[in-house]
Design brief:
heterodimer; A: alpha/beta; nine-stranded mixed sheet; five-stranded parallel sheet; B: mainly alpha; Non-ribosomal Peptide Synthetase Peptidyl Carrier Protein, Chain A; 4 helices; 57% helix; globular
Amino acid sequence: MNAIPRLLQEVLLAAIARHPERTALVAGDARLSYREVADYACRLAQALRARGVQRGDRVVIFMENGWRCAASIFGVLLAGGVFVAINAQTKRDKLAFILRDAGARALLAEPHLARVFGPVTEQLSALRVLCAPDAEAWPAGVENLDEALDEAPATPPPQAAITLDLAALLYTSGTTGEPKGVMHSHQSLLFVLDSINEYLGFSGEDRLFSALPLNFGYGLFQWFSAVRAGAMLVLERSFTYPAQVFNRMRDEAVTSFASVPTVYAMMLAQDAKQPLRFPSVRLLTNAAAALPVEFIPGLRRIFPNAGLYKMYGQTECIRSAYLEPARAEAKPESVGHAIPGTELLLLGEDRRPVAPGEVGTLYVRGPHVMRGYWNQPEKTAEVLAPGPVPGEFLLKSGDLFRQDADGDFYFVSRGDEIIKSRGEKVSPAEVENVIYSLPAVREAVVAGFPDPLLGEAVCAFVTPREGEKLNVQQIKRACSERLENYMVPKHVLLVSELPRTENGKLSRKLILERYAALIAESA
Amino acid sequence: MSIKQTIRRYVLENFLFTDDESALKDDDSFLAGGIIDSTGVLEIMLFVEETFDIKVEDEEMLPENLDSIANLVAFVQRKQAVAA
């Protein structure tokens, strides 16, 4: 095997060659060594190949945030496929959209999700569906995953992929409402993995903790970083039951903790009542949403021995910037500078560099930039701009930043209308589309409103059709049936008329201004 | 209304947005069913504290206490018995 991996799965194969019995993954009741993870992944790869999965085929992983999901990612890669991990909260319509959009060849699922995927996969006869046991009622055409694995050899099938081949489609919310599949090659993901591990300095002694979903770049890279470093990942399904999560962190004496501001806000609230301490943690990271400056002193109390890394990124390049702990104190509002081996540019409307200190759009340059959006050449062209070297593309982040004299970057505002709630991206259009599916709705506008715990709370402003009955419960129910629960509006306001601009357009800004007091009251 | 009815009605109205009793079984896991998440569990905790005049300690924020109607009812009953 090469000293420098060209394919992501080689990172796992290198780890089992060096330390097969070391613990790779702790999740729920499961404790898997590197050998066990590789064994599962190889059997899955063989089983997928035997079912027709070929180089470049997309395999959707619809599983809880647990060991099966983590091991399956490598299984799909070893089969030569492209993994598409999706949130276990995904509802039927969106699952159907992603399976069709990705042109999935196979679906890997878990039994308690059968009521979501069953009605969808029954309509897709060419899709192979493998589900972990035991489903109460197996939907038609579904195979028992563990039986398929038992029949398969635990050796990697022959690898034909090269580093330019796609490794993953990471679906992300878009402003138009339909999720987009961000295409990453083995090359782009391996590059960003090594860049991240370089600045965070993980070693084989580390025990990384994450309750972040594996379908999301920040969560996925907790797993990849651990495997690349030969370290252990302690993976929790979610942060829903904090006492359970904290016990696990103490029991495993975790050394790295990755999370988002909403979770940090909850920990600070608990610490205020009764001190919360994790002295084993040496590395603390924040991404997905800006960390409020006032959180920093409290986090230093909770994690007395940890260096805090503030990071910024997006699915289209995984990670763009970071600020190291030594400078976090001096520049609490900055997200720092480009990750190793990459460059960040601030450009104006004319795509020329802005003057020092001026606000510009952030462009990302480096081998970590995505290949584009799956099947969406127009949307790709909106964000991938020709770079300085022929054939190269810069990623237009869409976010506005400014830069100080040392070259450190400061977030100014988002360039689009995406809401960031609990660190998750929420597309207002996606929520509005669901609300408009109710016949009694005349107009609906969804916007983000500042919230101390969530960052932004999703708010829906709805006007009913004349003479029609509509209530808040109906709207929330429609949303909860069709959207992941972080997208369900926290506040729904029924109003008779929505404010418009002089040109007669609905304006999120005007609406938020008019109803700010009402939302604050209902909070 | 019994403890169970009170809790059921609250969860149905606030997380499933329905009054259809068949939408939730007493031993359905809130987490596995995607019914609540990390902010939802805080809302449930505040609700049982206020409604049943009990205090939920941070170390009691565990699935065995909170992750289904049945677990919540048993938890509230245990807390009330201790307080009585």
